[in-house]
Amino acid sequence: MSKVCVVAAGGTGGHMFPAEALAREMAARGWRVVLATDHRGEQYAHAFPAEERLALDAEAAVLAEAATAVDGIAEAVNMVPLDHPRRLLLVHAHPDDETIGTGATMAHYAAEHALVTLVTCTLGEEGEVLVPELAHLAADRDGGLGQHRIGELAAACEALRVTDHRFLGGPGRWRDSGMMGTPPNDRPECFWQADLEEAVRELVSVMREVRPQVVVTYDSNGGYGHPDHVQAHRVTVAAFDAAGDPAYAPELGEVWQAAKLYWTAFPKSVLQAGIDALKASGHTNFFGADSADDLPFGVPDDEVTTEVDANAHLEAKTAAMRAHKTQIEVDGPFFALSNHVGQRAFGTEYFTLARGERGPATGEHGREDDLFAGLDCG
Ligand SMILES: [Zn+2]
Questions:
Q1: All residues at 6 or more sequence positions from 72 whose CB lies less than 8 Å from its CB, including other chains
Q2: Within 10 A of 57 (CB to CB), how many other CB atoms are there?
Q3: So what's the pLDDT on residue 260?
Q4: 8 A C-beta contact, residue 70 and residue 2
Q5: Cβ(286)–Cβ(275) under 8 Å?
Q6: How far is the first Cα of the chain from the last one, in angstroms, to the nearest whole number?
Q7: Closest listed residue to residue 216, CA positions, set 201, 202, 233, 196
Q8: Mind listing the pLDDT tens digit for each residue in 170-206?
Q9: What is the CA radius of gyration of the chain?
Q10: Could you give the CA distance from residue 28 to residue 107 in angstroms, rounded to a whole number?
Q11: d(CA 18, CA 22)
Q12: Ligand 1 centre from 90 Cα, in Å?
């Protein structure tokens, strides 16, 4: 008689990904795996190596029947712990922002067995399509870019080995608002026009489920003023506080106060070095700028608190950039930067600590070298 293992998991990514790893492990050991999940788990269930599925929404009798099918604990199984003591949540506005700003960091922590959860707020429907054969997907032509970018984001996450990625409120809940001052800003379904309270509730429920110690998003200018980036900042700051407030929406889950909140940052000195190196190499200048002061996204060096050296994951970041095929030109400024300035500007990513205690400083700039620095994550 074969041994039966019932893997029960709530139907959200944070539960289902460890459960899937467990199911694979048990199947590899010759157990018959039965997956029990709720209706939300259906979207993940296809990936399970389970022979049968049970719905947790079903009658208790069905579960009782499943329980009698289990042979009992006939074998103690030693396994690598599937929980993640360190948990990092990143909130980004559009597919590709995660890779450009934080891709190496995400790959670094995923490789170190931290749980890396990416929440993307829109599908990036207003993005400019840089690939001629896909130009028809643009918002001002046939449309369909958002759906297409779901696939690009999935491929990028795979390259970064990030398994938990979600869209705020579900895919397509909020639309890309386009650049500041353009007509898409006024569309009622765009993220810029989102009901903040609803968006905050959605993010609080993710925070209370995933329980991250560290949260990353943009500064109050959204890094460079894009309305969806500004909105991602507002929603994340509000959710960071609300998730830890026992009086806020107890129905969204157990209170969780993350310890640290960071903004992504691009130090002006690094930007300037990139501009200079590109100029010296005879390449067209970087976004038309001669000086880092002319660009909207440089941060004064002394505001940068944290520097994550993830050069070991440069290849993953580059692969993820290529996955965003409609958005990032292989011979465009980002790749030029990586080719000419190399790893320092590309595999090292920078952050500014906005909330929480700064961990020990290291290196010549006296910065943290780890987003979890100073935290005891058990
Ligand atoms: Zn963006």
A1: none
A2: 12
A3: 98
A4: no
A5: yes
A6: 40
A7: 233
A8: 999 999 999 999 999 999 999 999 999 999 999 999 9
A9: 22
A10: 27
A11: 6
A12: 13
Q: What's the rounded Cα separation, in Å, for the pair 261 and 236?
A: 9
The residues near 5 (Cβ < 8 Å, ≥ 6 apart) are 23, 26, 31, 32, 33, 34, 70
User: What sign for the dihedral angle of Cα 236, 237, 243, 249?
Assistant: negative
Check residues 359 and 339 and name the one with the higher pLDDT: 359
Q: Which of helix, strand or coil describes residue 265? A: strand
E strands within the chain?
A: 4-9, 32-37, 52-55, 87-92, 115-120, 164-167, 214-217, 260-265, 306-309, 348-355
Ligand 1 centroid distance, CA of 232 (Å) = 10
Residue type, 291: S
Task: Output the CA 198–ligand 1 centroid distance in Å.
Answer: 21
- Closest by Cα among 130, 175, 179 to 324: 130
Q: Which two tokens stand for residue 165?
A: 């990625």
> Strand 348-355 relative to strand 260-265: parallel, antiparallel, unpaired?
antiparallel
Token pair for 259: 């310890």
Residue 158 tokens, joined: 């795979």
C-alpha triplet 253, 371, 329: angle, nearest 5°: 100
The answer to whether the CB of 69 falls within 8 A of the CB of 33 is no
Token readout for 121 is 């707020």
Which helix (H) or strand (E) is 333 found in, with range?
helix 333-340
Distance separating alpha carbons of residues 68 and 129, to the nearest angstrom = 56
Spatial contact of 220 and 232, defined as CB atoms under 8 Å apart: no
**Residues in Cβ contact with 27 at an 8 Å cutoff, skipping those fewer than 6 apart:** 33, 49, 50
What are the backbone angles phi and psi of residue 105, rounded to the nearest 5°?
Answer: -65, -45
Q: Tell me the CA–centroid distance for residue 212 and ligand 1, in Å.
A: 23
The Å distance, Cα 141 to ligand 1 centre, comes to 21
Name 368's bridge partners: 306
Which among 255, 365, 218, 364 has a CA at the least distance from the CA of 305? 365
**Single pTM value for the model:** 0.80
Picking from 307, 360, 368, 371, the residue whose alpha carbon sits closest to that of residue 88 is: 371
Distance (Å) from CA 95 to ligand 1 centroid: 7
231 CA distance to ligand 1 middle (Å):
11
* Gap between the Cα atoms of 242 and 234, Å rounded: 12
Q: What is the pLDDT of residues 296-309, one digit of tens each?
A: 888 999 999 999 99
